[in-house]
Amino acid sequence: MKTLLKISAILLTIGLTSCSTVFRTKTQTINVFSNATAAKVTVNDSVYNLPAKVKLLRTNKPVTLSYQSENKQFDTIIPSKSGPLFYLGNLVTSPFFGAGYWVDLMNHKRFQYKKNIFINNKDTLELYEYKAEKYIAKRNITDSVKVNDLYAFYKRNYFKDQEKLKRNEAKKFKRFNPTAGTFKFFMAPPTLSLIGLSAKNPNLDQFNNFVGGVGFGLGGDYYYKDNRFISLELSNRVNQFDDFWWSGHEVLARKLDISVRKGHRKNRFEYSYGISYTYTDYNYSLPRDNSPIKPFMSDDNRRHFTDSYSALGFSTLINYQLTSVMYIGVRYNPSIYSFRSSGKSFDYEHIIGFDYQLKF
Questions:
Q1: Pairing of strands 27-34, 116-119
Q2: Better pLDDT: 107 or 116
Q3: For 333-337, what is the mean pLDDT?
Q4: Fewest CB within a 10 Å sphere: which of 100, 116, 295, 352?
């Protein structure tokens, strides 16, 4: 008995939440209007003088409006479609395998037609004239002063929109086709990078790579020719994913890089190469399980080894322009000569990473 009651309750819930079935009527009223002085439409053998409210039976079949005025006669087909009430209202039945949809699918009340139908009687209308006449015909405005004001309003806004569109298109075109004298400021959010550290760093027995996702970058490109540019960039990369760098890593290296590159552009591709200056801040901490717990932010040199040094090297970057402002690419920044407290020497380290830039 309890099982039967549960099934009945579920079926009642599904029936009540089948939105199209419960909340909609079998018919729909649409508004039909025209910019002709005298016009009429015939729908299902019924004749209506425009503007008119036409009642239609909801069905999956399109409706034909036969339009007739003093100088025109043609048919307009109005398609039907399932309304948003059918798609959104039945989401609550998703836990019941979308049962509300199945209920509504068996009922034509889910269908609807476009509510407002404007039939244009004139052949040569500018876009702003079409919009003005549609507004006037829908509201059946006959006052000549108000009609003239509406024409002036739509015309003024139309030309403003056209000018704005032209400016935006010109700006977008220039972003995809920079010319001599163009300057682009760019910023780079954090991306994945591979930081290679030399064995000359404290407590590293051999060359090691660390993956990181913390960092930022900013700079600018100046085009001295249509397809040539000079790029100046400041970037910071960290071999960790934790923004709170003091939270206890064994090896932590921050590389601050300043680079100057010469760039070439072909279509949407950019590639640049140049020299770089890299400042590395290196910190090695003994694992906590190998020594007593120290106070927070302890600077006990028996457990911490630090080193800071500069290096000279190269910088290369390949980018592809996705949108007017978004670029993706790959960078490779090798450093080859280090200035350490232990002495100057040739020493290889690198930054290899995915690149994501926003250029304005």
A1: parallel
A2: 116
A3: 96
A4: 295
Q: Note if the bond before 287 is cis, omega within 30 degrees.
A: no
Cα–Cα distance, 139 to 136 (Å, whole number): 5
Say if CB 77 and CB 61 are below 8 A apart: no
Q: What is the pTM of this model?
A: 0.61
Tokens of 208: 């090691």
Strand-pair category, 52-57 with 304-321? unpaired
Return the structure tokens found at 302.
Answer: 């028996």
Fold designation for 183-359: Porin (2.40.160)
CB 329 within 8 A of CB 339: no
For the record, the structure tokens of 44 come out as 């299902």
